[in-house]
Design goal:
Organism: Fervidicoccus fontis (strain DSM 19380 / JCM 18336 / VKM B-2539 / Kam940)
Keywords: Oxidoreductase, Peroxidase
Strand content: under 5%
Number of strands: 0
Protein name: Alkylhydroperoxidase like protein, AhpD family
Number of helices: 5
GO molecular function: peroxiredoxin activity
Radius of gyration: 15 Å
Structural class: mainly alpha
Pfam families: CMD
Number of domains: 1
Amino acid sequence: MDFVNKVEKNGALDAKTKELIALSIGIVKNCETCIYYHLNEAMKLGASREEILEAAWVAVLMDGGPSLAHLEYVIKALYAPLIKAINEPYSKQ
């Protein structure tokens, strides 16, 4: 764990940037658990939706189609509360 703590703390790159990089790698590696973990950590560190989506699109740029399929997890996680709020009035009918 000492290694992980040293890598994740602020250095030449701040912790938020490192989490955005880790999110991109999770997308490229097709690791759903990694995607959700690093997305949440990035948000805890103050990453905006725009920053998260931009990092995700960098992964798609570098990896192509396979990463595009995993972009769905990022979009669902970012917009789930909004989608729920929009659909809630209709679910009561």
